[in-house]
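I'm stuck. Please check this protein.
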Amino acid sequence: MSRRNASQRYGSVAMTFHWLIAALILTNVGLGYYFNEMLAEENPVRKVFGLTHVAIGITVLLLSLARLRWRLKNPAPPLPAAMPSWERRFAVTTHHALYGLMILVPVLGLSTIVAPHDLAGHVVGPIHEWLAYSLFVLALGHIAAAVGFHFMIRRDRVLHRMLPGTDTGQA
């Protein structure tokens, strides 16, 4: 498999960014929810979970910036010509929103650390949390659309473009 994107599939670098960032985001949403909602403020483990959440968030931010740079130099394979224009626009808009949130959510998370306590607790923190859940919901929608179109609606091989070791069915 090529490192670079090809006309019919993503390259190994794009796939690695995609799956690694996806796993880190899903982990961090669960971790953030757990330590914020389930652990008492005085629980000493809370700080460990919080620091782990921050470290993962910084990693997501750095990987997302690297992924964006890679994507700008290695355009995504075109969507199938048979795909309706509204679906193309929706897919592109969704991807732009995902990229934006993958960068904005960690930046806001880091801002909660450096912002004054009242601003962090009452403004930046809640916005970070709301956008993190928005990112999670958007990611779940992305997964549902990819799987739904692949197995139930169009039954094409668009999903295979991002799955290592699969055949796109096209030369």
About this structure: The first helix runs from residue 12 to 38. Residues 12-162 form one domain. The radius of gyration is 18 Å.
